[in-house]
Structures are given as structure tokens and as C-alpha cells.
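[step 3/7] fold_predict: job queued, chain A
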Amino acid sequence: MRRFTFVTLALTAVVAFLVGAIMAGGFARPDVSAGAPKTTSGRSIAAAARPSNAAPVIPAVNFADVVERINPAVVNIDATARGQEGRRRRGRTSVPDPPDMPFDFPPRLERDNPHRGAGSGFVIDPDGSILTNNHVIDRAERIIVKLSDGRTARARVIGADPDTDVALIKIDGLTGLPVAPLGDSTTLRMGEWVCAIGNPLGYEHSVTVGVVSFLGRKLFDMSLDNYIQTDAAINFGNSGGPLINTRGEVIGINAAISSRASNIGFAVPINGAAAVLPQLRARGKVSRGYMGVALRDVDADLERSLNLSVSHGAVVQDVTDGSPADRAGLKPYDVVVAIDDKGVSNEDQLIREIAGRAPGSAAHLKFVRDGHEQTATVKLAERPQRDSADSRGDSPSPSDRVKADQDVALGISVRDLDRQTVERLDLAKDTHGVLITRVEPLSSSFDSGIERGTVILEINRQRVTSAAEYRRVARAARPGEILTLWVYAPDLAQRQIKTVRVEEK
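[step 4/7] structure written:
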């Protein structure tokens, strides 16, 4: 009996142990996720395969936290103006196929009745200073700001800069307002996540999310524009609202949208707005340095065609008569390579350097002319207000096509300048050249941006005085050769340098 009892107890203990082990195995929590088998050391195979120096996996951006912090600083703006013509920024309607500005007033207003428009903005100082777009408040006689807590207040314009579409307004009598922190737009990268907050179509404090699609987009003014392109949805009423990075910093002011596609929006970089803030506060407007030159970049075709001794810099295309550059002796084809001993890599850099300086200051330029390095000191003037392109330069009549003998290699038809053409295009009486009457759409000239109605002044720095002389030069060019054309564009009242690759005849 004792032996039987001992055996029974032993069997019971074994059975209890096995049942306990099974139960523990059935309810134990695995230490790796499903589908990731363990190595003998307990690490997942995926973790073991990842190099020790690999970048850690970055979790998804939580814009809910960002919006919670920034949204209280975003405001809605109602601007009222008397009936008048629409308020497009100067020069913008003349750009071929421009993206539409989200104008918050109708494009053409009745003259008698007042009209209201809506936009957005964001507080940058606790005392009520607000950044927005110039086109939101331009010519408005009454500006009402609605805060995120529902309070409304009248605002006044402190300053505005039409060239960058930035405006500073202020509401008085309020303090301790939530502020949107400003970031650094120069650190942005294409593909970086951003979000926009604004008042689209009257839907207050709407939030949209997207990425930075492109940096440095030029839309209206080829000299100053530096837009951030994003696919975060921006609609009418978003104008002036903030574009925000993942750290909750404002890196742009939403300003424009494309009329031909959805989710293509543009924002003014916040660094550009911050740069003009001191002048807006102090003077209400922005003064910029000005030389009076038209520029273009050095590229491989231009370097080869003109046998340039430098591969970088800003090429002078045109010099305005009586301008600071004219008085300093600059000429077309000069290549500016440095300003105040600071290297210049392209035209955009030089323009921003000059525009960032005060009128009346001196700029010491280093440039290359005919392979020789020279210097000049330019006393800057104040940059004139940008005007819309004037209508000078009527297109040639259809009958001009019959008179012209098209050159197959370049795809350009030309004819001699006569007195009537010189007067019609408002050219100087001593202008020598040939008028382009047609550009073949399937040609290298068309690809180079050469347009009908343009006057060819020189080819490879040799004057062209007649259509016969032009045809002689064009037909002597060999396939693959690159020709440099110095032309005058009447619609821009500006000389330009174009390069054309000669094609098979």
C-alpha cells in the first residue's frame, strides 16, 4: 500500500507538472512580434540582420500635436475695399500661363459697391503683430482679424512689400496672444512633410498635410521669386496662412495656387519675409539695391559658344541706360564672378546680394571681359517698383511670313527692320538687326525660348544688319555648333542672350 501510494503521488505530480507547462506555454506572451522568428540569442532575425550602424526607424509624424500648438496663433482676416479694379500684383498678369493667385477679391470689381474678401495670417508677436500676404490686404480700407478664441479686432497695416507678397498688420489693445514660432526655410528639403493651416473658402482653421515638392520655384518675377512648392492642399482663403514643418515652426506663407492642377501650391519662404520685417516695421516699405542689368547664368552651351574662360558667374545680357551699372562701365557679355571678394556662382545669387543691400551703398564687382579679369565699383540705386509689361512690340502681321525666308537649320524666319517697324516697336533709331517673324515649333530655337517679334542684334558677338547677312551666318553654321544670339525683346524692353544648337539641315 505504501508503495502504491508513493507511485500514485509521483504520477500525480508528473501530470500536474505537464499540465502546468502546457498551460503556461499556451498563455505566455512572446517577446517578438508575430512573423519575426527569434535567433538563439532571443533577438528577432530582422533585428539581427540590421547593421548596428543603420539609421533607426523614424516614427510617423504626428501633426495633431503640431496643430494643437500652432492653431491658436492662426487668424482669419476679412478685408473690405470700395469697388475698384482687381488687385493683381504688378507684372504677374504678363507672365505666360501664370498660376492663379488665390485672390480673395473678385478679379474685376464693380466700382460702386464695397467688396469683402477673406484670407489668413498668423501672430508673430504677443502684442498683436501679424504676418500675411500683401494681396490679402492690398488697398483694403477696413481689416478685421478674428482670433482662434472667437474674438475680433480691427487691424491696421504696418507695412507691405508687393515684390515678395508679404504684409505686416497689427491689432492694438491686445496682449499675451499666442505666437507662431518662425523656423529656417533654408533647411527645407524636397520630400519633407509640411502642413498648412488657414481659412479656405470660409472653413476656418482647416488643416492640410503634404510634402515639399520643389524649392526655389520662380513664378512671376524671375529675379526675386523663390517660392516653396507643396502638394499640401491650399485653396482660396489660405492666402497668408502658415506653412509649418514637423517641428511646429512656420517655414512659409501660403501665397499662390495653380489654376491648372489640384494640390500644387506655393508659399513665400519665411526667411525672405523675416529679412524684410525690420524695414516694414520702421518704414512701412522695403528698399532694395539696384544696378540696372539683366543677367543670366553661365551654362555649358554659353561657355562653349563664347569661349568663356570661366564656368560660373552671372552674364550681363543688357544694361539700362543711365543706370548704376552703365555709369560703372559694365557691358553686355561681361561675366560677374565676385562681389566684394565673395564668389558669385549664378545670377540668382548676385541678384539677392544686390537686392539685400541699401540704396546708396557701393558694390565692388569682379568680372571677366574678353578673357581678362577686371573690377568695377557700382554705387547702387533704389530698385524701381515692378511694372506690368507694356504693350510695346506688336506681333508681326501674317503677311510677314510670306516675305520671310525661313532658315531650316535654326527654324527662324527673319526680315529687315524698316522705319515703320522701328517706330512700332519703339526701338532706337540707330538700331541695327533683323526682326524674327516666325519660329518653327519643332526647332532648337523654339526650345531655347526665342519668340516671334524679337529683334536679333548679334550672332556670336558679330552684328547682324540685314536678313541676307543673317542667312549667310546661319547657313554657314555646322550641325552641332552652338550659336549665341543677342536679341532685343520689345515686350520686355530688354536685351537677352540666347544660345541655339544648330540642327541637321
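[step 5/7] annotate
The first helix runs from residue 2 to 27.
DSSP finds twelve helices and 26 strands in the chain.
exit 0
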